[in-house]
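So, can you check this one?
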Amino acid sequence: VKGPIFANVILADEINRTSPKTQAALLQSMQEYQVTVGGETYKLDLPFLVFATQNPIEQEGTYQLPEAQLDRFMLEIDVNYPSLDEEMEIVRTTTGFGEVELKQVLDRERILQLQGLVRRVPVADYVINYAVRLVRATRPSDPLAPDFVKEWIAWGAGPRASQFLILGGKARALINGRFAVSCEDVRALAEPVLKHRLIVNYRAE
């Protein structure tokens, strides 16, 4: 029986409440775009996009996500409390009566076209060098790492972070009407991309 994993867009609400078995299946789907059930492997249709939420407060009944799975997500976005105006709008729209009319914005073929367009955006070697050097500076064993990284960080970001910085930079450039990636695009993405790829090892003192 094919479940929700066979959709093009997956929303995993409170992903840390899923069992390790479910997390392992999701990891395979995110890494290989396929899932194995009962010894049989099923291919997943593209595009395959996973959005997940995680409650950082509650620990009871949760399972810590493996680093290999966290590394498959491109960005981590911290959602704080809404502003006064935003919260008023939330209450206004969710406590009244009204029907929401959904309208299709993109179809499968268009999403694949846009993904292909992003990959065709040119990027200069100096921008790639900037992104790679930035990522390497998070690794305590790398000569580029500053002293505070060597003191406080156990493991730095891997090559996937460099890839995501460039891919995200390409998408950001297109959104802003530009046809080439700049170092500013990389800087704008660096914090959310690198944040969840650093395993911080605080010393007891």
Summary: The CA atoms of residues 25 and 37 lie 9 Å apart. The longest strand covers residues 9-12.
